[in-house]
Amino acid sequence: MLLSSPQLLFLSTLLLGTILSISSSSWFGAWVGLELNLLSFIPLISSKNNQYSSESALKYFLIQALGSSIIILSASFFLMSLSSASLFLVASLLLKAGAAPFHFWFPSVMEGLNWPQAITLMTVQKIAPMSLISYTISYSSSFLMTGSILLSALVGAIGGLNQTFLRKIMAYSSINHMSWMLSAIMLSESSWMVYFMIYSIVSSSLAFLFYSHQSFHISHIMNHSSHSQTVKILTFISLLSLGGLPPFTGFIAKWFIIQELAFNQMFITLLVLLSSALLTLFYYLRIAMTSMMLSSPKSKWMKSNKFNSSFITPFLIFINSAGIFTPSIIALII
What we know:
mainly alpha
């Protein structure tokens, strides 16, 4: 059984908190949903098998509690009709989502999580804060949003260059993708939803691949994929797809954002995003080439049996290669 009864209960309340936040008609309801989401995620993080999970749970709780207190502070500013109220509100939501310059907690929390919890933190836990950001964008907060977009792109690209731990690499990758999602939020709500959906599918497939082989370091990929050509190819495709290299699935979302940014003449933002995407592609390629080109005779007996290649392999290849068929689908639709 993958989930115990308490885990299933907390996962249900986590999703309930997310739904409550994005569907609430008042900021009090949104705040309650965020708190329910936080209190549900803390028990899911804690694990007896992981000695670093308690540290990550404490860090996550303190940061999210700080974000919640800033939301309450901004609510009092709204009551006083202060112009900085929306600025504080957006800053607190950026802190909760892990966007730069409020990203400092995200890699350290990711480092202490198991892969299933890391997938949740990279995907589900971003839905509520980013949905609320899309509701609160105003002229006064647009400067903060633009600064966060540029900083997230640079921090996510540069921060991952000297990392060898896969969870930290995925954390900085998530920060970089945050810049694209924030850009999509400033363009339109539908653009953000499309990008987030594609990013969640691609990043979850790669994290699931790492989880299946219990890989936490670049050297683990070299050891565990030394005897399986299928796993090598699958890791290679998944990483290039996450990097947004055409014609893989990850490029579809970036393609839409590039078109929208160019149409709205946001060329400086587009230049920074594309430059950062090239840097992230570099450290994706470093992992991909490690898995493809190198092999180690050591630790072959440690291969995990969690990976059911008969069903999972074609599914993951289809997810990450679906972008190849997109031009044909678009041509048929048109």
